[in-house]
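fwd from M.: "can u put these together and see what the complex looks like"

so here's what she sent:
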Amino acid sequence: MKNKKFYELSVEERLAWLEKETGLARETLNALCGQAGLTPESADHMIENVLGTFALPLGIAQNFLVNGREVLVPMAIEEPSVVAAASYMAKLARAGGGFKASSDAPEMIGQMQILDLDDISIAKIALESHKVELIEAASDIDPLLKKLGGGPREIVVREIQESAIGPFLVLHLIMDVRDAMGANTINTALERLTPLVERISGGRVLLRILSNLADRRLARASCTIPVEALAFGEYSGEEVRDRVIEAWSFADADPYRAATHNKGIMNGVDAVVIATGNDWRAVEAGAHAYAAHSGRYTSLSRWTKGKNGELVGELEMPMAVGTVGGATRVHPSAAAALQLMNVKSSRELSEVIVSVGLAQNLGALRALATEGIQRGHMALHARQVATAAGAPTDMVSAIAEQMVSEGRVHIDRALEILNEWRTK
Ligand code: MEV
């Protein structure tokens, strides 16, 4: 175990290493990897019509240095190569000091749709002149949040001039939700404020719901990789850097490519969002809406050449994640994931997540712009195919290797090899 890399260890050895390295109790680690995770009984309290639970592989990305802090990153994902790529790119980023990350205050936006107004301009002025009263009313709704330093921050009134039903008003309630994702806090506040908003505006409030375009809650990460660290195989560091920038330019210019490019970022982002029990649909919705905020869907990241010829990567996106509330504490694996990462706040969690997204993006661009992704991908894909063909655990690697060496990675071939071996 001593001289082995993390990925070379058995599952049990990895757990033993983590126990020693992090000081976390074996119970916590067992919860993290599902051995003592969510029970059907707890699941039954979380959603409706429960039959049981659904498992995903949980891997640990290595080498992450975020704002100078070492972080072991739990990633729940079914796709091969993602955890390996994140770990490897985090290693490259380390050569330039790791990831520098920052985040906005955890402010979420709640929306109210106000209809049936005789004059929307007059109603808008009325609401704007009652902002203080509205904020005061909102701040009394959640005393605990207030005690923690959160609460309403701003009221914004917007006119929607063109819609299928004609003009109407939208009121935005901006609230600092501290370490929660904030959907419940926001939706409760909106519902409570409804009578007051109707009285002030003279209109009828229809929808009251959080916006997933959380553009007041952005997180950003950057990394600077010296060219020497980028060289591999027949590629010089300069070549890799220039190819990554060329590949990024494609996503920057073309929405068809940007969708796939951003999907690669979300491979990393979602895996951590899921492992920590957060709402990945909310994060996905925010990411793609933000990618189109200029009016044209584009890349969430940016790759450029730095002053000293290094490769500079940046990623900025909404990150509505919590470290309290929702499933983050109820799901034992999510609670253990947060413990492993040792994040102290939702902001710190969001900063780690964008760093993983940036690493994942580099992994994809570097592979696509050099040797292509299939080579690395195939080895792992072959293991999945062998497993799907019913290969016993101790035969999966050998069957996968044979399929890769033959260049025939598909289920029929896996079944044939299995049969050949069984009849030997
Ligand atoms: C595959 O899951 C993700 C990639 O398609 C991302 C990309 O193309 O940048 C490899």
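replying to her w this: The radius of gyration is 25 Å.
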